[in-house]
Amino acid sequence: MTAVDPGLSQILPIILPLVWAAILALAVFLYVLLGGYDLGLGVLFPFAPSHKDRDAMMNSVAPFWDGNETWLVLGGGGLLAAFPLAYSVMLPALYIPIILMLIGLIMRGVAFEFRFKSERYRFLWDAAFAGGSILAALMQGVVIGAFVQGFTVADNRFSGGAFDWLTPFSAVTSIALLSGYVLLSAAWLIMKGDEALKEWAYGVARFALIALSVFILVFSLWTPFLHPEIAARWFKPAHIVMLSPVPLATAGSVVALWMALARRQRYTPFLLATVLFILCYTGLAVSLFPYIIPPGITIWQAAAAPDSQLFMLYGAIPILPIILGYTAYSYYVFWEASEHDAYH
User: Rounded distance, CA 177 to CA 170, Å?
Assistant: First the structure.
């Protein structure tokens, strides 16, 4: 950093971890949102009204699902590069759920490609697609729950057990995320399905919204008891007024989404489901910031050297708009594709 202005050299160690935390937060959210609706389709797959509807469900995401995984790769790779200490703690703490998640993603990916090629054994590929989707969604929820609970760390190393991630809180979080994915996928089918499939999706979305609302309430009441810092952040009198817009907006979004479903609106349910995910994500960020390893390691403590973060940022600055651009363009090109179009 000898060529960098001395004043800037003092600011960069503060600013760069914030920038990389924002990039990783964006990548994780976009994966949860975009990967969530196609994982939710897999969860709903066995319950679809007919074989024709299952074909339509799969065709509706065929042009997009590969690209959605880009954000998972960016999140994992970015964590290793920008916050190596966090990566070295999280990975051994979450080996089992991460491996199970990857097995689920592999199962659904293989099933996605082979299902249309097989007539005799299509039912097996249907089961693999559904099972892989459910497994991946549940394990992602477990990872989030374990992350919120925090990890046992000694000398900047994970010092807990192999099954510390398996707790009642992480189990509740996994089911909550699964219900959120089902809501997203039902809202997706409302936009993309034919009339019969849309009518079925409206009913699924109502049940998923009820379940998700209950889980949001449980999660909101349970999380502050995990760490004193979280309770203090939400329940101090000075903070209650400042942070109250988040829970109030969440409640308003639930009501608005219920009304949109009752009125049989086409695009509004997915938009409101997205808003609901954004608000839940915001609440989680408010609860945990600035800790990247709750309850004791901040983003600054876990950050790579400023030189390394700055060097990687030179690559991330052009790459992020390119990824966002081709993602948006793919949705634009294939948006009107019908369930009758062949992607197989």
Answer: 10
Give pTM, 2 decimals: 0.90
Asked if residue 81 lies in contact with residue 308, where contact means CB atoms within 8 angstroms, the answer is yes
From the CB of residue 21, how many other CB atoms can be counted at a distance below 10 Å?
22
Give me Rg for the CA atoms of the chain.
21
3-class SS at 20? helix
Strands 157-158 and 153-154, sheet pairing:
antiparallel
Q: Which two tokens stand for residue 228?
A: 């004193």
List residues bridging with 154 in a β-sheet. 157
Task: Give the C-alpha distances (Å, rounded to integers) separating 309 from 11, 77, 188.
Answer: 13, 13, 37
pLDDT, tens digit (0-9, with 9 covering 90-100), for 73-82: 888 888 888 8
CB 264 within 8 A of CB 187: no
Tell me the C-alpha distance between 220 and 224, whole Å. Answer: 7
Q: Is 297 helix (H, G, I), strand (E, B) or coil?
A: strand
Q: Which neighbouring-strand residues pair with 153?
A: 158
Q: Tell me how far apart the alpha carbons of residues 316 and 308 are, in angstroms, rounded to a whole number.
A: 12
CA distance 341 to 76: 34
Contact 144, 285 (CB under 8 A): no
The DSSP bridge partners found for residue 157 are 154
Q: Which H or E run includes 154?
A: strand 153-154
Instruction: Pick the closest to residue 141 from 117, 112, 170 (CA basis).
Output: 170
Contact in structure between 68 and 80 (CB atoms under 8 Å): no
- End-to-end CA distance of the chain: give it in Å, rounded: 53
Q: What are the pLDDT digits (tens) for 275-287? A: 999 999 998 888 8
